[in-house]
Amino acid sequence: MPEMKIWLRKHKYFIGICILMAVIHIGLIFAYGMQKEGFHEDELFSFTTSSGIKYFTPKENYIWKTGYQIQQEFMVVEGEEFSFGEVIQNQAEDVHPPLFYLVLNVVMSLLPNHFYKWFGIGINLLFSLITYVAVLYFFYRLDKSGQNTTYALIAGAVYAISPVTISNIMLVRMYALSSMWTMLYACLFLVLIQDYYCSKKRFGVYIVSGALICYLAFLTHYFALLLPFFFTLGYCIYALLQKKNILRMLCYGISMVAAIALAIVTYPASWQHIFHGYRGEGVFDSLSSPELFGTTKNFLGILNEYMFASMLPICAIITFLALVVGLAKVLQFKAISTVGGKKMLYCLTVSLIGCVLTTYFLTRSALLVGEASCRFFYPVMVLFLPLMAYCVCKGFYGLIKDGLTKNEKLVQYALPVLALIVMIPAIVGFVQGNVLFLYKDSAEKKAMIQEYQQYPAIMVFDSNAPYRSWYVADQLWLFSQVFYLDSQHFQAEFQDATIQSAEKLVVYVDAPPEYLEKLKIMNPKL
Fold first, then answer.
1. For residue 151, which of 391, 325, 341 has the smallest C-alpha distance?
2. Closest residue by Cα to residue 53 from 5, 140, 113
3. In what order do the strands lie in the sheet with 482-486?
4. Max alpha carbon distance in the chain (Å)?
5. How many CA atoms lie within 13 A of 119 on its CB side?
6. DSSP code of 267?
7. pLDDT, tens digit, for every residue of 212-269?
8. Is 0.90 topped by the overall pTM?
């Protein structure tokens, strides 16, 4: 405790700035959360599969529903709170692990019969704040130089004040939780290397922590284990290079494998998802493709626009030059003259290689679905972007400090200037509107719907893909009457008094346009 008080007193300005950046981060989330007007279809899927009832797809033809009845499919109904079994079953029938949806179900169950976008945004914000603290810790502990607090603040700012991070929180899916596990495991890897000769008791704590993170990450998103895999491999390689603590290394590796095996036993559907589900088979097909870069080029275009504000080539070149400068210092034995310096260099190398390989793996195996494809990379970018910023600041500041020591003012202001430079992509990204998953155009649609909501609405759905009908579910909530028609079994001569007497109809058609003509036959007044 006395040591903690001394540390807090010594770093009071650092802690104050960290808290200020956290407040700014929270403010950005609320500002953009207020602007979120609609949902990606997968977000609606998150809510409906977390509701504790069988998720909604229309299965009946010629059926009327009220808008509120449709909305109930996306909320926890009173009396159905904390229906974890149904949530797990919903995910088992799809291709995802259930942990995020169970957490969402808990939050939704606290306010049954209500639907709020803040259910999802709120839990994502909580995950993000934990991730933010982990980013600060990682870079504070990574660098043992006198500038470690400054580097930690720069890395924290790149994470906290970034369109990438805000987009991740706006998307009500499992990626913010996956990002949290990624960053926590990165911190554990760093501790394992820096505290390599710790006591058996402490190492036991590390094993339990790592196993718990792997277990929970697997139950969050299967891809969430990609970076932890490279960190675990990095720890094993380090042990082999040291030729000491090999038994510990084996115990640690076996424990991580056991944790994943336990997760499979806990959630048996995962085996089917990975090896037989449509996504699992798609991943294996993509990875086995003889084309080396596959869809990488297309993904890089999306990442360039939405994560680097169209400055990916410049960012890559500057980072590469910074690494060259840093390597030159290493070759002069200035950066690795101590054991701590060598460990820092090793952790940095493993982190960079792990991020690059994971990003490449995702470009080969993820779904290419336009700007929404960015979501697959959020759990990697949570570390990759701060790492790039750290390399640029560390490399060039070292060059300025060692090469221009006579100009004290230049040295004094070099790091703040470099910090501003690495924030340029984030700043430009905000200007370009690169915060995704807001769907502001839905506000205009809903305003139009409010003008016509007194008329009956008809959803002409395709029974071969009925799930597409709830891509616009939040718009249907506004109507008092919604009629479902199966386009595959639509008989033009069927009778319905409400449709035949309606002055106007609002029609959503997931079918060829001639179906509108069939409706006109039923009601000559239309």
1. 391
2. 113
3. 63-65, 482-486, 457-461, 506-509
4. 91
5. 29
6. S
7. 999 999 999 999 999 999 999 999 999 999 999 999 999 999 999 999 999 999 999 9
8. yes
